Amino acid sequence: MTQNKDTPLSSQIAALTGSVQTQCLDEQARSEALDAARGLLAALESPVERVIQDVVMNSPVLMALRMGVQLGIFTQISQNPECGASSPDIAKKSGASLILVDQVTRLLAATGYIKQDGVQHFKPSPLTMVMADPIMEATTRFCFEVGNLCASKAPEFFRKNNNQFPSSAKDTPFQLGFNTNMEYFEWLGHNPDLAKDFQQWMTLKQKTTLNWVDWFDIQQLIIDGSNSKPEDVLLVDVGGGEGHYLRQFQEKFPETPGRLILQDLPQVVSTIENLPPGIELTPHDFFTPQPVKGARTYFMHWILHDWSDEHCRSILANIVDAMEPGYSRLVIHESILPDMHCHVPSACLSIMMMVQVAAFERSEKQWRDLLASVGLTNVKFYQPPGSGEGIVVAIK
Ligand SMILES: C[S@@+](CC[C@H](N)C(=O)[O-])C[C@H]1O[C@@H](n2cnc3c(N)ncnc32)[C@H](O)[C@@H]1O
């Protein structure tokens, strides 16, 4: 791209945007360019504009997204992309008042979540298509009803406890917000609609570029050297929710011998449908002894970040007891927080864990210390580019 020095900055940026839209960048290049583009935005936006955006605008935007799901705005606009939908159509179909629909669509259009092509008329933008996905609808409902409530109750909670880290998973902004004594997962067991939304949310990461089967060397680190008899267990997904990690694994390595076992709480296991053949489903509470002994891999994604070190030690001790020395691998897929310059998603996730379950994301040192405390010292760390996520592998 050649630019005359007299070309206005806005045209230079527009030209660069056009050229990026036609390029196919690898993940490393995309992530570096994204960081640079954020720098450009920060250079252009005045600090006060940025603060007003975060402090004043974020909550109406979040509310409009939640209402967009509730009123079926995204699904209706994306159903027929060529025609789109009008505010009166949306009001008629949802039963909402037209002026409410206008309020919500105005902000959704201003933020790019829908594309305005006439007065009270909208077509889908790429963001509309994402929001219309049932997984994203469930995620929006859950994050608004639960996550947002916990975050908004946090200042009151911390004021009352003298601004101390929550000392128990039974006493967090979550309990204050929902006026309950139950822990988070116990409460979900009594709220099946939100529990279903929660499990849908857990599958969201499959839609991003961050997919462990694509960046983690499963062949070398798990499959090579594993026992090859069909009755041997290749992978146990502990607290695996609806089993999407095992599904991905099976799709990527369909010919690999060995059993694949999905474990979760009975109330979760009983709701799982359409599990492909070859994935075994077992109810298991990970605070009790691990029934599958000597598996090649014990996998956990987003499990230990839900629990304090003390609880993690109980969960880990049950797995370590079942591991075959030198053979079994403990594979923990979680954030690995850097000591400096943490990515926004990991920092947000850590706050969410604090206000919902009195837990937090861990740094490499915190992972090493935790694993050493249950006798695991042979520990390695793997991270894809541009992310705070990673995989910790430990061998007994
Ligand atoms: C944050 S979700 C992660 C689910 C899944 N690993 C994923 O990444 O999509 C935590 C999971 O732990 C499960 N869980 C919570 N307490 C458990 C327990 N005591 N025993 C087994 N599973 C449990 C929950 O039901 C939920 O599916």
TrEMBL record:
Active site, UniProt feature: 305
Gene3D superfamilies: Vaccinia Virus protein VP39, Winged helix-like DNA-binding domain superfamily/Winged helix DNA-binding domain
BP-aspect Gene Ontology terms: methylation; secondary metabolite biosynthetic process
MF (Gene Ontology): O-methyltransferase activity
InterPro entries named among the record's database cross-references: COMT-like, COMT_C, SAM-dependent_MTases_sf, WH-like_DNA-bd_sf, WH_DNA-bd_sf
Domain O-methyltransferase C-terminal: 234-375
Record's keyword terms, sorted: Methyltransferase, S-adenosyl-L-methionine, Transferase
Designated name of the protein: O-methyltransferase C-terminal domain-containing protein
Organism field: Penicillium flavigenum
Origin organism lineage: Eukaryota, Fungi, Dikarya, Ascomycota, Pezizomycotina
